[in-house]
Specification:
This protein is mostly helical. It is 79% helix and 4% strand.
């Protein structure tokens, strides 16, 4: 393989790993922030929900990009298998996004007699 292609793959792998780990931590950090906002009745709670939604979407896409750039390799950073974390991130983020879509669909279909 040419050196330019190898360098590009390394930079894509590193960037996608940083993005999916950062977005995953952001989505996880939104969980207690939402609970605190609900507890103290803050009015800006919807901003945190939107941040969590986009963080999950970015996390899933970056994890897919990371897995695509590391095909056939077993990589670990400080003994932590990053590919395993990428698979877990995809499953959890996709599950959360599907849950949000399902709730939205139910709210649209069911009459609003709540």
């Amino acid at each position: 393989m040419p050196a330019a292609t190898t360098d590009l793959r390394k930079s894509v792998r590193l960037a996608s790993a940083i993005v999916f780990l950062g977005a995953g931590f952001c989505a996880l950090a939104c969980i207690p922030a939402i609970l605190i906002a609900e507890r103290f009745h803050w009015r800006r709670e919807s901003d945190i929900h939107i941040t969590q939604f986009f963080a999950c979407a970015v996390c899933a896409l970056a994890a897919v990009a990371y897995l695509a750039s590391t095909r056939g390799r077993r990589e670990a950073v400080a003994g932590i298998p990053i590919r395993g974390l990428a698979y877990i991130a995809i499953v959890l983020a996709a599950g959360f996004l599907l849950l949000v879509v399902a709730i939205f669909a139910v709210l649209v279909i069911v009459p609003s007699d709540f």
